[in-house]
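User: Fold this one for me? It's Tripartite tricarboxylate transporter TctB family protein.
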Amino acid sequence: MLEKMISLLFLIGSLTYLYWAQEFTFGTLGSPKSGFLPNLAGILALILSITVIFRQFQYKKSANKDAVDWTKFLFILIGLVFYLMILSIVGYFVATFIFLFYLFKVADTAGWRFPLVVSFCSSAAFHLLFTYYLKVALP
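Assistant: Here's what I get for Tripartite tricarboxylate transporter TctB family protein.
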């Protein structure tokens, strides 16, 4: 029931946002004005809200709900605190690599090769993006 109420709240919020976004001039696709992106975001939020509402009303509750695993949540919080502590010591690339690898292992990802490769590639991609493309210094 709570999920349905939250879905309806998102629908009302999307409609309100779209209503207020109409105050900006839209322009055209070739020459967008200040209201182009807010209107586009409002329409997408409205579509997503309606989709979520339909899925919530079609969803049938199962008799036994899955229990929330609070230990994984706690381990993620501990990892995040550790990440913030070592970020200034070892730098962005190494700290992010360690943190992503840790998250993969907390999420019970099988094997070692896949988490290592994805963690390294993600850290390298973000490092290259921010350092060379956006020219922003990382810690």
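One thing worth pointing out: The helical segments are 2-21, 36-58, 70-90, 92-106, 113-133.
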